[in-house]
Amino acid sequence: MWIDTHCHLDAAEFGGQQSAFAQAAAQQQVSWIVIPAVERANFQAVATIAAAQSNCAYALGIHPIYVPHADEADLLTLRAAIATAMADPLFVAIGEIGLDFFVPDLNTGVLREKQEYFYVEQLKLAREFDLPVLLHVRKSQDTLLKYLRRIKVQGGIAHAFNGSFQQAQAFIDLGFKLGFGGAMTFTRALQIRRLAEQLPLDTLVLETDAPDMSPVWLHPEKNAPQECPRIGGVLAQLRNMPIHDLAQATSANARIALPRLALLG
């Protein structure tokens, strides 16, 4: 009934209890949890967790925060991992990739150039394998869009979206859905809540970003995938619609954004 399109279930914060958290989410009718990789070191981990759980799928990519410690060999390893994973139905996207201009050290000089290089190379992989991407979008919307216009990919999800309505429409025009999660539950998050309320329903998907991005009722404790339905309930309230209809719509949107996920049921 619910799909958590972005959850770092392999993170150390879960204390090796991934199965318990996945089962707790399933009990809350979370039918799928998408686990994105962040670096070469966890490519195998996300695939292994997905294989062990009945409601998990995964993505492979190099997160911009991890780019400073990555090198060309990591991109070669990623390509090889993608090529192998194409035979695995639980592999659904390239991600988490993107740009992070919020962290000052990553937004200048060589590290910004390296971020953009890794982003571009991973977009090329998405294009080569005809896969959607899970985009890290933090203070970087316009630059992300610049490269998406140059390197056409299948689409995907702009994770934790927090831009303008104009930027939202630009991502939508390029075939992307927009991810909303715990940040939307804070009443002070006025722009995110306006976006969640006013953007077309068929452009929205839900996510927890667990263990990060905790909703207001958990902050500052860690987030978990079983919170997805309650986060969805906030979105339903903002849009003044029945929660069942919201669950159906956002899950349908997730399956459109991630066609390989749709094949899983």
Describe this structure in words.
This protein is an alpha/beta fold and 265 residues long. The protein has one domain: Alpha-Beta Barrel (TIM Barrel), CATH 3.20.20. The protein is 43% helix and 16% strand. Strands 1-2-3-4-5-6-7-8 form an eight-stranded parallel β-sheet.
In brief:
This is TatD family deoxyribonuclease. The chain has ten helices and eight strands.
Discrete helix count: 10
The second-level CATH architecture is Alpha-Beta Barrel
Q: What is the CA-based Rg, rounded? A: 17 Å
What kind of oligomer do you see? single chain
Helical proportion?
40-55%
Give the secondary structure arrangement, pairings included.
Blueprint: E1 2-4, H1 18-27, E2 30-36, H2 43-52, E3 56-60, H3 72-85, E4 91-100, H4 109-129, E5 133-138, H5 141-150, E6 156-159, H6 165-173, E7 176-180, H7 190-198, E8 204-206, H8 228-239, H9 243-257, H10 259-262
Parallel strand pairs: 1-2, 2-3, 3-4, 4-5, 5-6, 6-7, 7-8
Helix pairs in contact: 3-4, 8-9
Organism: Glaciimonas soli
Protein name: TatD family deoxyribonuclease
Binding site for a divalent metal cation 1: 6, 8, 96, 209
Main attributes of the structure:
265 residues; alpha/beta; TIM Barrel; 8-stranded parallel β-sheet; hydrolase; TatD family deoxyribonuclease; Metal_Hydrolase
